[in-house]
Amino acid sequence: MLSYQHGYHAGNPADVFKHTVLLTLLSAMQEKPNGIVLVDTHAGAARYRLDSEMALKTAEFRAGIEPLWARDDLSGPWQDYREAVRAVNPDGVLRVYPGSPLLMRGRLRKNDRLFLCELHPREQERLAECFANDRQVEVIAGDGYQALERILPPPGGRGLVMIDPSFEVKTELEIMTRALKTALRRFGHGVYLIWYPIIEGRDTTPDALPGALGLTDEQWLDLRVNFSPAQRLGRMTGCGMAVINCPWRARALLGPLTEQFAGLS
Ligand SMILES: C[S@@+](CC[C@H](N)C(=O)[O-])C[C@H]1O[C@@H](n2cnc3c(N)ncnc32)[C@H](O)[C@@H]1O
């Protein structure tokens, strides 16, 4: 049984980087008017209270979203990201952190659709509550990797799949590789966004993925950041976002984010 709950980690430095990359990539894809099918294979609960016992127990958000909240020098993707967080805190006080499902929902156009997959029963319940009666969103209670076989290829030919596992199982990268092989066979030109942690003493980086999937250099973009001492999360010293089939326009916007992230702390 999985024990990870994102409520302990919401808004931490890894989320700041992950969600800024996600929104930047999505904005670039939405410069074209055609609808996009978005898939969050590991959705979590979508909405997190930062004044909850859970969030305060680890207080990871204090080195993540909190320092960004009041800064007056943000611009570009960082400002866009903070605006998205502000949208769920309309009175100007940082109390709620939006997970990837809410962030993506906030960006849906009428012709986009969002699939949210979650395995943990408690998180499923909260996710389903959050999107009850939302006709553009489908919540799938089950394995996100398996769900890809049903969802892909998307009818209009445009899709963004975000894969954001908790890396609780040692074989996560193997499971992911198998799922991506199948997904790419079904939807070879889809855009896939993969989050991974950098953990001391563990092999969690997806360096073998391009070889295993037969990707060309143009199909693979790996963005990696190291945390400052204040941002470190136990043995997690950084994280990365890898993109398969990154659109050219997005590549130009995403490239500078790693250096900019380092400048934020
Ligand atoms: C890191 S959290 C997701 C955070 C979320 N994507 C965000 O950015 O706000 C990972 C989630 O994946 C769920 N999970 C783990 N394995 C899964 C699987 N195979 N399929 C679907 N969900 C899974 C966990 O229960 C957890 O809620």
In summary, what is this structure?
With 265 residues, the chain is an alpha/beta fold.
Structure characterization notes:
With 265 residues, the chain is an alpha/beta fold. The chain has a single domain (6-264), classed as Rossmann fold (3-Layer(aba) Sandwich). It is 38% helix and 19% strand. It has helices at 13-29, 53-58, 65-69, 76-86, 100-107, 121-130, 144-151, 172-186, 209-213, 248-254, 257-264, and strands at residues 37-40, 47-49, 96-98, 113-118, 137-141, 159-163, 191-199, 220-226, 236-244. It has a seven-stranded mixed beta sheet, sandwiched between helices. It has a two-stranded antiparallel ribbon with strand order 2-3. The chain is globular. It starts with 12 loop residues before the first helix and ends with a helix. The chain binds S-adenosylmethionine (SAM). S-adenosylmethionine binds next to β4 and α7.
Task: Give me some keywords for this one.
265 residues, Rossmann fold, 7-stranded mixed β-sheet, two-stranded antiparallel ribbon, 11 helices, 19% strand, binds S-adenosylmethionine
Number of domains: 1
Query: Helix content range of the residues, please?
Result: 25-40%
SSE pattern, N- to C-terminal: HEEHHHEHEHEHEHEHEEHH
Regarding quaternary structure, what we see is single chain
CATH domain topology = Rossmann fold
| Shape label | globular
Corresponding CATH architecture: 3-Layer(aba) Sandwich
Radius of gyration: 17 Å
Mean pLDDT: 97
Helix/strand class: alpha/beta
Largest sheet: 7 strands, mixed
Task: Give me the side-by-side strand order of the main sheet.
Answer: 5-4-1-6-7-9-8
Individual helix count: 11
- Segments where pLDDT lies below 50 for 5+ residues? none
Ligands bound, unique? S-adenosylmethionine
Q: How many beta-strand elements?
A: 9
Distance between the termini: 36 Å
